[in-house]
Amino acid sequence: MSELIQTLLDGEERSDLRSFVSELRQQEKKYLLRNDIVNVYNEYCVKYHKSEKFCSSSDLGKLIYYTQEIIQEESNFCFIIRPKIANQQVYRLTDDLSLEAMTVEELLDVRDRFVNRFNPNEGDLLELDFAPFYDYSPIIRDPKNIGKGVQYLNRYLSSKLFQDAKQWLESLFSFLRLHQYNGIQLLINDRIKTHQQLSEQVKKAIAIVSARPSDELYEEFRFTLQTMGFEPGWGNTAQRVQETLSILDELIDSPDPQTLEAFISRIPMIFRIVLVSAHGWFGQEGVLGRPDTGGQVVYVLDQAKNLEKQLQEDVILAGLEGLNVQPKVIILTRLIPNSDGTHCNQRLEKVHGTENAWILRVPLREFNPNLTQNWISRFEFWPYLETYAIDAEKELKAELQGRPDLIVGNYSDGNLVAFLLARRMKVTQCNIAHALEKSKYLFSNLYWQDLEDKYHFSLQFTADLIAMNAANFIISSTYQEIVGTPDSVGQYESYECFTMPDLYHVVKGIELFSPKFNVVPPGVSEKYYFPYTQNQDRVESDRQRITEMLFTLDDPSQIFGKLDDPDKRPIFSMARLDRIKNLTGLAECFGKSPELQAHCNLILVAGKLRVEESGDNEERDEIIKLYQIIEQYNLHGKIRWLGVRLSKNDSGEIYRVIGDRQGIFVQPALFEAFGLTILEAMISGLPTFATQFGGPLEIIQNRVNGFYINPTNLEETAAKILDFVTNCEQNPNYWHQISQQAINRVYSTYTWKIHTTKLLSLARIYGFWNFTSQENREDLLRYLEALFYLIYKPRAQQLLEQHQYR
């Protein structure tokens, strides 16, 4: 990139650069983000009558394309350039157009000065740098392979381990001897004493089981194998046992990464899983749509059900039924005494449709009962997490009769609890962010002090840094959640370097090329969400009830608005009412387009209808704003706003009823980490318009099975929806074509079977490599503990003291 800039400075376009810099000086904003930069450049090209070729293909145009931020400081400009994914370069362009490369530390100082938070005394601010902890671990080189961590890790560590045949076989032998269930030995017993003997016995066992009928049950020849040194766990039939032993035989004689992964994925080593969703309002009925919960509750519930199902299948395939092995999945959340009629005040609740999956609710210690007896916002929850983890550990050990085999954290607070539990219990830790708030709230780290009273980002971002670096592996729903797109920064990437003025500088917050990152998208519950054409699975009375509720029911307690013409094509959206989900933006988009109003009605299922019913500040603000938009654009008769709590059954039927009327689904979020509602809408058969900012870019293939929208451009969004509606009216088959493609997309890529199979495979493989590589993570974990106790905990204590007086 420095060569491009130098060519620009040395060539004919130097004068163009000077003119553009002059335009920058005239801007009221002194800190420009990508959209601002592009707008200034486009205005510059128009003002100076630049050709289209110049605008896109000139050296100056290329520089603008790669520039993410520009900060003006006195007469100089700081250019933050991203020449490729997960790569940032910083340059200072001086008044005389000379170029200087800048260090990360210098950039962070510039940002501090911008908000007048710079202290000229050197060395007085903590610098956080995680780079040294990744120096001795394998690093992915090609950005395309980010998110394929387990594949890379397998190849890398296999090549190292296989170089020393003796070490490899001893490691494998020791690993196989580890596995037990409730004190019962699995896989191999003490009759096999060395790795040489293991190799010999494997070949003999293969010969024995090969001679038996392929479908003969394991119990019929169990004793024979035990006398040879093999305990249960190899398979449930002669054929399965033969396959597993043959893979092991191949692995011993001629190891390769693919064979190793195939073998490790079969080993019965995970029976007890804890899914942490700490901040509460977690239940199966009456809680969806509460602030902070909706999508995460759906995700974790579906994940728990399908993990238990997959664990049961694995137990059967491993031949462990005779040992009465009972896999168990626990969703760990908080107990809320004042539960508003829900089950959130029950300690233990069985997950519907499962044999051994449970919601375990652990209460917060009381402190101030006015708060701890009630729901607490995710932004205020931080002071309680340490004591909550201590109490949860006792409850988990009691429920599981021991330690879990895997702990999966969800969201920032759940991931911090997962870190505390995994550290204390010495268990493999997996993190799932769902959404990292840092990238959702503009300049949230730079102006954290101004936002602290409302959001407490100093605690959240510190918790994120601790948990993401501590995790053995991280699951993301999309590639761009990690490293963004060619022209946008990823959520995890935003933690790579940043400043929190007066608190600390993050010089290297996370190694994006670490093999701990894996893309494993969630599925959608096919029990509740299925195509609207699947009439044999629909209940007619539910269809009629939901149809009435959506279009004609008069119930002011939970429905606002009466439609003048209920037969118009419905534009539908369903989300919680907060600024990021942007349902008010969709309402304004609809309000600004009389043409769209002429063709369609707008139907929203969103939170509460009344300010006094909400306990969430953002939701209250959005309620007020939505009413103002309805009045401003006179949308009476054209909009229905349902403030209802929905069961899963009703939620699925709503999409299908919209499909009955050839409606469309719009997801207008300003940013969406993934988008479960998009999957729900698509599998139901709804043509879907979704934000281009975030995960939907990887779910939807634009104009094939859905459409991208820029939710900040209301006119363009309205035009795209109107164009689709018009095309459907001219060609009735067009709606059906997009509908079917949407259904196909979900079934091919986004099922829970795919998700859980891959997640359990990851957990086994990372567990294997943690054992065999004997990687010493203690220095990293001690560093993270220091952050927790010296930065996080004192700030949490300050917030707790504020809570005492509420």
What does it look like?
With 806 residues, the protein is α/β, with parallel strands linked by helices. Helices cover 47% and strands 14% of the residues. The protein contains 31 helices and 25 strands. The strands form 5 sheets. Strands 11-12-10-9-13-14-15-18 form an 8-stranded mixed β-sheet, sandwiched between helices. A hairpin with a 5-residue loop joins strand 4 and strand 5. Helix 11 runs antiparallel to helix 12 (257-264), helix 16 packs across helix 19 and helix 26 crosses helix 29. It is globular and about 85 Å long. It starts with a helix and ends with a helix. The model has no long low-confidence stretch (mean pLDDT 93).
Which terms summarize this structure?
eight-stranded mixed sheet; 25 strands; 14% strand
Shape: globular
Helix content percent band: 40-55%
Mean pLDDT over the residues: 93
The biggest beta sheet is recorded as: 8 strands, mixed
DSSP E strands, number = 25
State the separation between the terminal residues, measured CA to CA: 54 Å
Structural class, judged by helices and strands? alpha/beta
Which runs of at least 5 residues are low in confidence (pLDDT < 50)? none
The proportion of strand residues reads 5-15%
Radius of gyration: 28 Å
Biggest sheet: strands side by side, in what order?
Answer: 11-12-10-9-13-14-15-18
Q: Given the structure, what is the number of helices?
A: 31
Secondary-structure topology with pairs:
Blueprint: H1 2-10, H2 14-25, E1 31-33, H3 34-47, H4 52-57, H5 59-66, E2 67-73, E3 76-84, E4 87-93, E5 99-101, H6 104-114, E6 126-129, H7 149-162, H8 165-177, E7 180-181, E8 184-185, H9 195-210, H10 222-228, H11 238-253, H12 257-264, E9 272-276, H13 294-317, E10 328-335, E11 348-350, E12 357-363, H14 369-372, H15 385-400, E13 406-410, H16 411-425, E14 428-432, H17 437-440, H18 448-455, H19 457-470, E15 473-476, H20 479-483, E16 498-500, E17 504-508, E18 517-519, H21 540-551, E19 559-560, E20 569-574, H22 583-591, H23 594-599, E21 600-605, H24 617-632, E22 639-642, H25 648-660, E23 664-667, H26 676-684, E24 688-691, H27 696-699, E25 707-709, H28 714-730, H29 733-749, H30 752-773, H31 778-803
Parallel strand pairs: 6-17, 9-10, 9-13, 10-12, 13-14, 14-15, 15-18, 20-21, 20-23, 21-22, 23-24, 24-25
Antiparallel strand pairs: 1-2, 2-3, 3-4, 4-5, 7-8, 11-12, 16-17, 19-22
